[in-house]
User: Fold GPN-loop GTPase from Coccomyxa viridis.
Amino acid sequence: MDVSSPEERHDSSDGSGTKATEGAIQSSDKPTVILVIGMAGSGKTTLMQRMAAHLSDAGTPAYVLNLDPAVMTVPYGANIDIRDTVNYKNVMKQYSLGPNGGILTSLNLFATRFDQVIQLCEKKRTPQPKYILVDTPGQIEIFTWSASGAIITEAFASTFPTMIAYVVDTARSAAPQTFMSNMLQACSILYKTKLPLLLAFNKIDVVRHEFAVDWMKDYEVFNEALQRDTTYAATLSRSLSLVLEEFYENLKNVGVSAATGEGMDAFFEQVQACAEEYRQLYLPELQKRQKEREQLELKRQQANMEKLRLDTEGTAEHQKQ
Ligand SMILES: Nc1nc2c(ncn2[C@@H]2O[C@H](COP(=O)(O)OP(=O)(O)OP(=O)(O)O)[C@@H](O)[C@H]2O)c(=O)[nH]1
Assistant:
């Protein structure tokens, strides 16, 4: 299937005479990538819209991407939209796929062109975006556990300070076992990507999120909430809660309402803290991995050169005889 090159819908520069110019941006003014991930219906798209509006009101430039090929309408102005590059319905038809297979294949096709997306994100603009906001498909595992999801995440993380905003539907997580499955999902994403992760407890206009913070801080409080439940699943949640204590310690959290805008200043403060964490912890690790890869490549080249030398010497020897 033909995949067109990713294109910008509109440039995010202010149009005040200084048109966006080609050229990589300096590392010091690199925008922070916010990957918005969360279970279906947690409020990712609404939060994207809220973040874009909040930043626009504050006069903070942002660059916005939609990576959900199946979304019907995008209520924020996306600079790059996967739907312009891959037609999800055609993909389903052409490969005889169901909805999830269609999303996965669309994402795979898009990932083959992701270097071009990174180039567009890296373009020097006036004003320079401070954030790159990225909306992901509602089917969480399609993004977090697919090869294309990993390619996209790594492409961002090796180019920009990158963090994950894990959106939780606070109202739906008020049941301890739902809360636990959400935390396990977040935990697996944290350990898979190793990127700074911010738990964004969304919909606090419906249910406040303090109960969740108490559950994370104190195992006994969570245990109490589970007390009335004697099923096997509750026992499992209890044991898991102990295991997750260390995970909770490495997490930042914030309560927000994408609907009303409450908590957005605190949200961006935590995003900044995550960007700092990226620079201090993730970046040195990334540089170490890159160095190791370069050394391996050098060794491979040296071994090939040596093989070539031996082959050439062998041929010369043979011709002499
Ligand atoms: N009350 C309230 N409702 C919200 C909030 N954020 C989102 N919603 C509602 O929750 C529903 C799902 O929101 P979406 O933004 O579509 O969620 P999503 O995670 O992008 O959904 P998928 O793309 O299907 O995964 C919609 O009806 C929203 O209006 C919030 O902060 N408060």
In short: The pocket of guanosine-5'-triphosphate is lined by residues 38, 40-46, 138, 202-203, 205-206, 257-259 (CB under 6 Å).
